[in-house]
């Protein structure tokens, strides 16, 4: 075999490891050719799967039976609704979805004046061990495929009949611990032949994996990067986030600066306020000092209590005071409204409940 043939062979072998919904357009075109079909079929399939967001290959009415059989053989992974909770307070919908292998995950639809936003999961479980997070209690089960991230959005559109315009990758899982599938997901959801969701309307949040943040910056995407900072000092951060033992705040600030330089996008700093642990005026002053020359924005969120952990949500007064101190120091800051508080707002809680009481669903 000459080198070119070898490369083509490796390419198709790699593509065949993906399910149809996880293939980017160019990969789908190679696959279509490999199963002996004309090139225009790739566009048809891509539009059915990603623009229309169909649940089942059988719905492709203009695609020949033989090709549908090939697609089924290749597989089209996605999610299926198990249950849905609707908040009486603000109309937020929380979905529990089942994957083909029986694992379950959560996605949340939030309705805002500017459009519908969906918070998706990127892994089944998480191995990062953050102290206040329900998603990590059972550890990491597995990474989600790009198809399984995409179908959380498509399924919500199918179920509600409403368009989704914003995506936050802030559900269960550490997206940068599932890096390649995350990038594949972003490229497909942004493809103009599919849902064509602007990269500017996508936010990816991470607990702070420095090498992957650098890699993300080098992709030069125009997504928003959110860093879960939660403390201005290494000492306090280590108490809340085990990953802080690996990467220091100084390294995080350096890579966030790099992210801004490469992409021109301001970084969001997530700060979940835990009573007496990171919500004192001293913490606020230190945070202001740390972020004074960063091109960023702070998002404060009083922590959502979970029953497995002992810590408390900051009181309203401390939250307002924290915000006031940051503002006085010219730091851009907002308090994130906690959506769907009446329906287990803390991410991972519904999935845990389901795992604990499968038979009642
Ligand atoms: C669930 S994580 C998923 C994204 C990514 N793994 C991360 O940590 O940024 C999304 C955000 O929710 C925060 N979070 C987790 N549990 C929380 C809780 N009980 N209350 C408030 N925020 C929480 C995280 O710290 C993070 O900022
Ligand atoms: S906060 Fe994020 S990184 Fe930490 S355990 Fe939860 S999902 Fe994982």
Characterize the structure shown.
With 361 residues, the protein is α/β, with parallel strands linked by helices. The protein folds into two domains: 3-74, DNA polymerase, domain 1, CATH 1.10.150.530; 79-360, Aldolase class I (TIM Barrel), CATH 3.20.20. The protein has helices at residues 3-15, 25-34, 40-51, 65-74, 146-160, 179-189, 210-218, 234-240, 249-263, 281-291, 316-328, 349-356, and strands at 79-86, 93-99, 104-112, 115-119, 123-125, 140-143, 166-169, 202-206, 224-228, 267-273, 296-302, 333-335. The strands form two sheets. Strands 1-2-3-4-7-8-9-10-11-12 form a ten-stranded mixed β-sheet, with helices on both faces. Strands 5-6 form a two-stranded antiparallel ribbon. The radius of gyration is 22 Å and the shape is globular. The N and C termini lie far apart (55 Å). Residues 126, 128-130, 133, 135-136, 172-174, 207 line the site of iron/sulfur cluster. Residues 130, 132-133, 135, 170, 174, 205-207, 228, 270, 272, 301, 303-304, 306, 346-347 line the site of S-adenosylmethionine. It is found in: Cytoplasm. Keywords: 4Fe-4S, Cytoplasm, Disulfide bond, Iron, Iron-sulfur, Metal-binding, Methyltransferase, rRNA processing, S-adenosyl-L-methionine, Transferase, tRNA processing. InterPro entries: Aldolase_TIM, Methyltransferase_A, RlmN_N, RNA_MTrfase_RlmN, rRNA_lsu_MTrfase_RlmN/Cfr, rSAM, rSAM_sf. Belongs to the radical SAM superfamily. RlmN family.
